[in-house]
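input
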Amino acid sequence: MSVFLQSGRPPLILASTSKSRARILEAAGLAFIVEPPGVDESVMHQAVSGERSLEPHDVAEVLARAKAGAVSDLASGAYVIGADQVLVLEGRILSKPDSMEAARWQLLDLRGKSHTLHTAVAVATKGETIWSETEIATLTMRKLSPEFIGRYLAAAGEEVLSSVGAYQIESVGIQLFEKIDGDYFSILGLPLVPLLDTLRREGAIEG
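output
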C-alpha cells in the first residue's frame, strides 16, 4: 500500500521519536523515515510557554513548526512532519512526567477533573513550514483512587512516560476516563485526517 501511495514521490520524514505517531502513520499505509528533531523538548516548552502572549494552542504549534523545520533544514528534498502536544489543567501547562513517581502525582492531579489537550502538526519542506494545524480535545478523568492509579501504572509500564498526561487511550489508559471530546488521532498525538489531506494536496502522497 505504501508503495502505491508514494511511488516516485519525495521522501517523507517524521521528526519525532514518538512510537504512537509512528504507529499512526504506519497504519495509514505511509512509508517514512524517523529522524529525531535534535532539540531539547523540555527546554523548548519552558521557553515558549513562558511567553505571556502565547496561548496553549500557539505553544503547541510553535514547537511542532520548530521540530519540522529543524529536520527540513537538513533534508530539503523531503516533506517533514513535526508534532507537539500541550496539556492544560486549570490554566497550568503540564509537562511529560520524567519518572513513574512523577506520573503518579500527575494522575492524582488530573483525577476527577477535565483538562484540554492541544495537539499541533506541521509540514515543512525545503527548510520552510508550508502548513500547520492545531486541534483541541477535552478529556475528563474519573475520580480514581490512589490504589487504582498504582495498579494502572504497574500494568501500563514506563511507556506512559512518553505521553503527556501519563495516559495512552489506545490501550489500558482508556480506563482512566469518564468522558472524551475530541479527535481520536489527535489525542494519540497526530491530527491525521488534515495531515493526509495536506500531503495529498502537496503531491507527497497519492490523491
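quick obs: Helices lie at 2-6, 19-27, 41-49, 56-72, 100-110, 146-156, 184-188, 192-201.
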